[in-house]
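Aim 2, interim progress: modelling of the zinc ion-bound target.
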Amino acid sequence: MKNIDDKDLHYLRRCVELAKEALYAGNQPFGSVLVSAEGKVLFEGHNEEVTKGDQTRHPEFEIARWAATHMTSEDRAKAVVYTSGEHCAMCSAAHGWVGLGRIVYVSLPSS
Ligand SMILES: [Zn+2]
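Predicted structure of the complex, ligand included:
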């Protein structure tokens, strides 16, 4: 396990912004960003379950689909997925099936 650094916090904050966009659009508040090994943002998205009428429209699942189509297996393994919450079972499986690398997610204390 690797500790998070300032670069990770930057992308995690972007995930929270995307989660807010999802919430304001009427969806569940989740946002995710895919970053290459070189630090380039490749794909970002937020939950669209309600607005698209499809329960699989999680941003982590969209990232897995995008990565499978647009990246080599070597690049997928080196990429990092940042997300506003821990992957659900569906997205965890998709992440593993397409061979993506590290996952960094936000965890908020319950109040
Ligand atoms: Zn999911």
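The chain has five helices and four strands. The helical segments are 6-24, 49-52, 59-70, 73-78, 89-98.
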